[in-house]
Structure formats: C-alpha cells, structure tokens
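Weekly puzzle thread! Below is a chain. First person to post its structure in token form gets bragging rights.
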Amino acid sequence: RVFGRELELLAMNAAVQAARAVGAETLRAEYIPTAKNAVVANLYADLGFAADPGAGAVAGATRWTLRLDDYRERPTHIAHGAP
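Winning reply:
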C-alpha cells in the first residue's frame, strides 16, 4: 500500500547512497511476478533501471541494472527524520 506514495523513492535514494558509500557502481535487481506483487511490476523501470537481456531465475522473472552514475536523487514529500 505504501508504494506509489513516494516511499519507494525515499527507499531508492537511501539504497543508492548506501551503495555509493561502499564504492558500488551498479545495483542489480530481479522482479519475480506473483499475484500479490503485480502492482509493482513496473517499479524498476520507473526508478531508472534498465532491463537486462535474458531470463530471470524463475519463469517470467526479469532482471534489471541501474548504473549509479546515472541515478539522480528524486525529491519526495516525505520528511527525513520525522517522528
């Protein structure tokens, strides 16, 4: 329920900051479709990931890559450190 309300942007900004802090150059992800997560089927594409060719680990899965140099932090209406 929280996706689509900018929590995904806040989480992505934090993940990219953490990955950059340890010297990572890319993030890799895999989307495995299920009945319950269809609502986020386009999440990786919406966050700027590029689809990787080839199949994922299970039938219907897709793999994604994000080059950290290409990512720009996205503003959200969520206040950092709010109680």
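Puzzle host: Confirmed. Bonus trivia for everyone else. The beta strands are 26-31, 50-52, 62-67.
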